[in-house]
Amino acid sequence: MPSSWSLLNPLAWLESAVSGVLVTAHALLGALGLDPASGGAWVGAVVVLVVVVRLALLPLVLRQVRASHRLARIAPQLRALQGRYSRPARPGGRQQLTRDPAELARWRAEQKALHAEAGASPLSLLPVLLQVPVMIALARVLDGAARGHAVGLLSPLLAVQAGAATVLGAPLSGSLVGGGGAAGAVLAVGLVVVVAVATWATTHLQLTRGTAPEALEGPVGQAQRMTVWLVPLVMAATSAAVPLGLLLYWASSAVWSLGQGLALLRWLPTPGTPAAAARERRLAERVSTP
């Protein structure tokens, strides 16, 4: 039972939910024949947590995909609107939005009206942001297990067991810079490579196949191209002190994101993108095939 102070603490409830999924998955894997004290059982529990979280977020992902489709359909209108409120371009330069406060206010109001009329929303990062509290809760659960402390629904016995569980000789509560030893360093580097490669591939595919060519022009397009390399580098740079169990979550989630991105590009591509054109060609070929 949560204490009186934790009843008002959202993180305490999230820790209970995360630890509850881990405990349930661990028990099921033990019933299937895995040694409950082995690292494999706890690794499997973390992977199950990833699957549960990503499946729970899937309706929101699909909703955001449909919103991005509506946004893509009004993209020509948005570009035309920006052109009306832009200053004439200098020789060799690009058009820039007017600096007049009144005109900027009208531009924002008309832009907002277009979004509302189309039912479009630019909040495409919301599914990613909603995973942050889950990862914080998982890090706290792993930290508690490393200290042998019960956290959420993780009992003292399971906490000690999880804290002692190892993968390739490295404890799940260890990290690249502490507590993992040489085996932990090797495992951490391997997981970071998986995270970086899967994240790069997901971002690259979205940029080259899931983005309209017009959206890649100008400063915004340059910023998007930078994210292809920047995001994996940030993930790698922040992984040194991350527990191996959390790195395992990152790696599993990154692989899920890659598979999910490939599926969306194939079956639900954004209109006006190379992926949408490829889908139209596939459908045309099926119709023309006797």
From TrEMBL:
Tree of life domain: Bacteria
Gene Ontology terms: cellular component: plasma membrane
UniProt entry keywords in alphabetical sequence: Membrane, Transmembrane, Transmembrane helix
Transmembrane segments: 12-34, 40-62, 150-170, 182-207, 228-251
Coiled coil spans: none
Keyword flag Cytoplasm: no
Keyword Ribosomal protein: no
Main subcellular location of this protein, as a coarse class: membrane
Biological processes per GO annotation: protein insertion into membrane
UniProt membrane topology term: Multi-pass membrane protein
Compartment annotation: Membrane
Molecular functions (GO terms): membrane insertase activity
Residue ranges annotated for the Membrane insertase YidC/Oxa/ALB C-terminal domain, each copy included: 42-263
Subunit structure: Interacts with the Sec translocase complex via SecD. Specifically interacts with transmembrane segments of nascent integral membrane proteins during membrane integration.
Function in brief: Required for the insertion and/or proper folding and/or complex formation of integral membrane proteins into the membrane. Involved in integration of membrane proteins that insert both dependently and independently of the Sec translocase complex, as well as at least some lipoproteins. Aids folding of multispanning membrane proteins.
NCBIfam families named among the record's database cross-references: yidC_oxa1_cterm
Family from the record: Belongs to the OXA1/ALB3/YidC family. Type 1 subfamily.
Protein name: Membrane protein insertase YidC
UniProt source species: Quadrisphaera setariae
Annotated gene: yidC
